[in-house]
Amino acid sequence: MPRTLSAEQQATFDREGYLVLRGALDPERDLEPIMDEFAGVLDRLATELFAAGEISSPYAGFTFSDRLTRVYAESGKVHAQYFDCSLPQAKVRADTPFWTGPAVFALLRNPAILDAVESLIGTEIYANPVQHVRIKPPEHLTPVNPETGQVQLGATAWHQDNGVVTEDADETDIITVWLPLTAATQQNGCLVVQPRGHREGLLPHCPFDSGAANKNGGAGLHIPAQYLGEDEHLVTLPMAAGDVLLMHRRTPHASHSNTSDHVRWSFDLRYNPIGHPTGRSAFPGFVARSAANPTAELHDPKAWTRLWLETRSRLAEAADPRFNRWDAADQACA
Ligand SMILES: O=C(O)CCC(=O)C(=O)O
Ligand SMILES: [Fe+2]
Question: Vertex 186, ends 133 and 143: CA angle to 5°?
Answer without folding.
Answer: 60
